[in-house]
Amino acid sequence: MAASKPKYPLGSPQEHIEMCKTHDLRIDMICEDCDKFICGKCAKTNHKEHEWSTIPTAATQRRRGLFDFLTKIKEDLPGIDEKIEKIPRQITENGDLCDAEIEKLQKQYEEIIAMLTEIRKNNEQRLIDNLEVKNKKLNKVKSELNKKKKELKEMVKFMEDNKSTMSDYGLIDNHRELRKILAGLDDVNDINLYEMFRLEYRGN
């Protein structure tokens, strides 16, 4: 890494006196209000309401208090060192605070996940219980359908075998029983059972 360039490369604070860029005059004054070097014309125009003085006068005034000024700076240096020494400790404390906040966020995250997991488990169990109930109903429907199917087959065969010899009363009575069995089929509607299951799922 290259060494920083010294402020006074010639070993002296003396600098070349610049010219005013606005009026092209020699800068020989200082505006105390703006803390800015100016020329005589600047003092009479842009800085006429300000407190200003010549550079030699301002330098004389500063020389008078220079010792006390420098002494005060040297007295303040230990305080700066103390602040510098505190910075690593503050960095460590900031890191600890950050870690604590991250740990707190992690704990909150885990609590939320636990709550969501519990909700999911409850909903899953509710769906499973609902499924068992509906499946029992469907199995009951299946049993009833098989029963009615068997009755229908027996009735159809009986009427086919005896249609020629069956009395009028018997024909009407058996025909009525056949219609009752067919009407019973309308009471068994697995589509409605499916819709019921689907709606209950939405409601949960």
Throw out a few tags for this protein.
single chain; 204 residues; mainly alpha; 3-stranded antiparallel sheet; 4 helices; rod-shaped
Task: Characterize the structure shown.
There is one protein chain. With 204 residues, the chain is mainly alpha-helical. It has a domain of 81 residues. It is built from four helices and three strands. Strands 2-1-3 form a three-stranded antiparallel sheet. Strand 1 and strand 2 form a beta hairpin. Helix 2 runs antiparallel to helix 4. The two termini are 69 Å apart. About 3% of the residues have low confidence.
User: If you average the pLDDT, what whole number results?
Assistant: 83
Structural class: mainly alpha
Q: What Rg do the Cα atoms give?
A: 52 Å
> Biggest β-sheet: count, sense, barrel?
3 strands, antiparallel
Q: Can I get a quick summary?
A:
The chain has helices at residues 40-44, 55-162, 168-186, 190-203; strands at residues 29-31, 36-38, 52-54.
